[in-house]
Amino acid sequence: MIKMTVKDYGVMTFALDYDAAPNSAANFVELARSGFYDGLIFHRIIKGFMIQGGWGDLKGKNIDYTIKGEFKANGVDNPLKHKRGVLSMARTMVNDSASSQFFVMHKDAPHLDGQYAAFGHMLDGFDVLDKIASVDTDRSDRPYREVVIEKVEVIDEPVNEVKKIKRVR
């Protein structure tokens, strides 16, 4: 389980799905355990769609940058749907470009199914998600007032799963 504390907003908790996306889940856990997400912001927020965070410098973490994401367009059958509360890895147009950025679905977006690696779902904190999704943003969907991820805690996740990460070199 993942516990994400967002300054001035509250706590969201997530269950990870290692069966659907072991690489993406393990990558997220590795970054969370390293403290990487602590202090970062949700830098892209689109009400009725998603909130995105995890943009930061991986260079100081001794982590290779990209992973192979588990989604249909990348040759993997991932059964998770991009429904409200689903946790998924962000990427560029290149299939194997996911690294640290993630997004949480505010509303259902079936057009993302098979295109991005969903790797978990929200258990609690939908009110927090709604509050974050409602902040005022500029034309590039960046919030005018920073929405800070204070801490991401890993609770009861298997340590050995982190060793299974398939990095792209």
Q: How would you explain this protein's 3D organization?
A:
With 169 residues, the chain is of the alpha+beta class. It contains two helices and ten strands; from the N terminus they run ββαββββββαββ. The protein has helices at 22-34, 126-133, and strands spanning 2-6, 10-16, 42-46, 50-53, 66-67, 86-89, 102-105, 118-124, 149-154, 167-168. An eight-stranded antiparallel β-sheet has the order 3-4-7-6-8-2-1-9. Strands 5-10 form a two-stranded antiparallel ribbon. It is globular and about 40 Å long. The model has no long low-confidence stretch (mean pLDDT 90).
Provide the structure class.
alpha+beta
Physical arrangement of strands within the biggest beta sheet? 3-4-7-6-8-2-1-9
Number of helices: 2
- Residue windows where pLDDT falls under 50 for at least 5 positions: none
How many strands in all?
Answer: 10
Strand content: 25-35%
Largest sheet: 8 strands, antiparallel
Distance between the termini: 29 Å
Percent helix among the residues? 10-25%
Secondary-structure element pattern, one letter each: EEHEEEEEEHEE
Instruction: Return Rg in Å.
Output: 15 Å
Shape estimate: globular
Overall pLDDT score: 90
